[in-house]
Specification:
This protein is mainly α and 112 residues long. It has helices at residues 2-17, 20-33, 36-54, 57-70, 72-76, 78-105. The longest helix is centred in the last third of the chain and has 28 residues, at 78-105. The chain starts with a helix and ends in a 7-residue tail after the last helix.
Length: 112
């Protein structure tokens, strides 16, 4: 049984890798990576946004505008915005899958 569980996980990973969200994410990331300076700026934006997200919803809502203001090139570059949007779409899909798993295996995470 254990082997079939891992095989199912591998199949799920392959489905994610072939999903439109992941394919779009990879396409957008590749376009951003063609410009090393833009890549550096996008990664810094992502780092700052991630730190805010880890601080909670209120911190994120109150701080994300300031992060966006500090990164006008990222916000003003279409391929960077497309990449960030694609990353959000992919993360939402993975989060939804995780929620399905957590809800159905009765892991208590209400303390979070």
């Amino acid at each position: 049984m254990e082997n079939s569980l891992y095989e199912s996980a591998r199949k799920l990973a392959n489905k994610i890798l072939n999903s439109k969200e992941y394919v779009n994410f990879r396409r957008c990331r590749k376009r951003v990576e063609e410009d090393p300076e833009l890549t550096k700026q996008v990664d810094e934006f992502r780092r700052e946004a991630f730190v805010l997200q880890c601080q909670g919803d209120e911190a994120y809502r109150s701080g994300i505008s300031e992060v966006r203001d500090r990164h006008p090139i990222v916000m003003g570059t279409q391929i960077a915005r497309e990449y960030l949007d694609a990353e959000i779409d992919l993360c939402r899909m993975v989060r939804d899958v995780q929620e399905i798993l957590v809800e159905n295996i009765d892991i208590k995470v209400d303390f979070l």
